[in-house]
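Translate structure to sequence.
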C-alpha cells in the first residue's frame, strides 16, 4: 500500500507502454517504483563531495496523470464508433473491445485524474527523502518552501497534491500552504508572440510531422490496424491510429488497465507512433525551431536568479531565504527549458525521412517526459565553492551545453541562447 492506503498491485502492463511518449506513466521511466512507489536511490543522488552541503533546490515538475484533452477525446470516440460499427472478426480481444464502453466525456479536457494526485503526493515524499535538509517540516512551516503553478486545473491540483503529500508525511493538519499562480513563467509559450506566430499558429512549422504522417512507415501501421479489424484501409487514417494508441495509453495511465485496445499494436507499430509524437515535440517544443527554447528564457532567468540569490546569501553568511521552490507546469514548460540547457540533443535533427536511423535518438519523450516528469536543480556550497547538480526524473543529468561553453570546467552558466545577460550569475558556479 502507498502512504494513502491505496493497494498497489503489480499490473499486467502492455509491452508497448515504454513507447507512450508524453502519455506515459512515470513508473515506466522508473520501473522500480512499481514495487515500491516511495523508493528512492540515494546512491544516484549524492552530493558532489563530502564537504558539500545542499543549500537550495528548484524543481520544475510536469503535472500528474490526466484525462485526454477534448481534442483527443473526440478522435478516440470516432475510432471507437468505427470499430463497433465496422470491425468484424471473432478474436477475444475484439469481442472485449465491442463490450468496452466509451466512458470519456468532453468535459474531462485534460483535467487531473486520481492517479495524477498520487503521482505528485508520492513524488513529494520521495523528494523529501532525497533532500531532507531542504524539503523538511521545519522549512515548510517556516515558509522557506515556495510553490508556483500554471493556472490549468491539472497543474493547480498537482500542486495541492504535492503539498498534501508533505502535510500527510509530517502530520500537518488544517494548515493552508500558499502557492502562486504564474502563467508568465509556467506557460511562457502562450506569452511569447514570436513563438505563437511562427510556430504555434504556423502549420508549416510542423511540416516534418505532417510528412511523416503520410510516410510509408505510418501507412504500414495504418494497414496493419485495418487488417486486424478487417476494415478498409481508407478508414484507418494516421489520426485514427493515434487515437487507438491513446485509448491503450490512457486506460493504463488512468486505470492501470492493460486494455484490449493495446492488442491493435505490435512493437514495430508502437515505435512508429512514438516517433510521430517525438517529431511533434521536437519541432513544437524542442530543437526544431530556435524560438522554442528561447521562449523559455524567462523561466531560465527566474531559476538562475534564485540560485544567484541563494549563492549571495551564503556568501554574505546569512541563511538562504528559499530552501526549495516547487514549480508545476506542462510538458510544454519543461521541453523548451531542457532544450535551452542543451539536454538530449542529437547530432542529426529528427525529420520525416530518418526514422530508421533515429532508433537510438537522445530526444525521446517516452524517457524524458512522462506524467510528473521533473527537472530538479540542486545548489551545493562546497567550502565556499558553489556546485550545481541537475536531476531528471530522479536520475543525475550532466550539463552538456553550459559546461561545454565554459571549457568543460564549469563556471557561471553561459546564457545558452537568452538575450538578456544574467546579473552577475553566481560567480564561480561550477556545473
Ligand atoms: O495531444 P494533446 O492534446 O494531449 O496535447 C496536449 C499536450 O499534451 P502532450 O502533447 O504533452 O501529451 C498538453 O501538454 P500537457 O503537459 O499539459 O499534458 C498541452 O498542454 C495541450 O495544449 C496539448 O498540446 P498541443 O500541443 O496543443 O496538442
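Result:
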Amino acid at each position: 500500500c502507498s502512504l494513502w492506503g491505496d493497494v498497489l498491485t503489480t499490473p499486467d502492463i502492455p509491452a508497448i507502454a515504454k513507447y507512450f511518449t508524453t502519455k506515459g506513466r512515470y513508473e515506466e521511466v522508473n520501473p522500480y517504483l512499481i514495487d515500491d512507489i516511495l523508493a528512492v536511490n540515494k546512491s544516484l543522488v549524492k552530493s558532489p563531495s563530502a564537504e558539500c552541503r545542499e543549500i537550495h533546490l528548484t524543481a520544475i515538475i510536469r503535472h500528474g496523470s490526466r484525462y485526454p484533452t477534448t481534442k483527443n477525446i473526440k478522435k478516440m470516440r470516432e475510432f471507437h464508433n468505427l470499430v463497433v460499427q465496422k470491425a468484424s472478426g471473432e478474436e477475444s480481444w475484439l469481442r472485449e473491445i465491442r463490450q468496452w464502453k466509451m466512458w470519456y466525456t468532453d468535459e474531462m479536457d485534460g483535467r487531473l485524474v486520481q492517479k495524477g494526485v498520487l503521482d505528485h503526493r508520492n513524488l513529494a515524499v520521495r523528494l523529501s527523502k532525497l533532500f531532507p535538509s531542504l524539503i523538511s517540516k521545519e522549512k515548510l512551516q517556516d515558509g522557506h518552501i515556495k510553490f508556483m503553478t500554471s493556472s490549468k486545473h491539472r497543474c493547480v491540483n498537482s500542486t495541492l497534491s504535492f503539498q498534501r503529500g508533505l502535510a500527510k508525511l509530517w502530520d500537518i493538519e488544517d494548515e493552508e500552504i500558499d502557492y502562486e499562480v504564474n502563467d508568465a513563467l509556467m506557460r511562457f509559450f502562450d506569452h511569447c508572440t514570436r513563438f505563437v506566430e511562427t510556430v504555434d499558429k504556423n502549420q508549416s512549422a510542423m511540416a516534418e510531422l505532417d510528412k511523416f504522417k503520410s510516410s510509408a512507415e505510418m501507412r504500414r501501421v495504418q494497414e496493419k490496424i485495418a487488417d486486424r479489424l478487417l476494415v478498409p484501409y481508407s478508414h484507418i487514417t494516421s489520426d485514427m491510429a493515434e487515437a487507438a494508441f491513446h485509448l491503450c495509453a490512457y486506460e493504463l495511465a488512468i486505470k492501470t488497465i492493460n486494455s484490449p485496445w493495446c492488442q491493435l499494436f505490435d512493437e514495430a507499430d508502437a515505435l512508429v507512433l512514438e516517433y510521430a509524437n517525438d517529431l511533434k515535440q521536437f519541432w513544437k517544443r524542442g530543437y526544431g525551431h530556435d524560438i522554442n527554447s528561447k521562449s523559455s528564457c524567462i523561466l531560465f532567468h527566474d531559476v538562475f536568479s534564485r540560485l544567484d540569490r541563494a549563492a549571495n546569501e551564503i556568501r554574505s553568511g546569512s541563511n538562504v531565504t528559499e530552501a526549495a521552490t516547487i514549480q508545476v507546469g506542462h510538458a510544454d514548460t519543461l521541453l523548451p527549458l531542457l532544450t535551452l540547457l542543451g539536454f538530449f540533443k542529437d547530432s542529426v535533427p529528427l525529420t520525416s525521412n530518418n526514422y530508421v536511423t533515429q532508433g537510438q535518438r537522445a530526444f525521446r519523450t517516452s524517457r524524458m517526459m512522462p506524467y510528473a516528469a521533473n527537472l530538479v536543480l540542486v545548489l551545493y556550497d562546497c567550502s565556499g565553492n558553489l556546485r550545481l547538480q541537475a536531476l531528471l526524473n530522479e536520475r543525475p543529468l550532466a550539463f552538456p551545453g553550459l559546461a561545454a561553453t565554459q571549457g568543460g570546467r564549469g563556471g557561471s552558466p553561459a546564457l545558452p541562447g537568452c538575450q538578456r545577460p544574467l546579473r552577475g550569475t553566481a560567480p564561480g558556479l561550477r556545473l
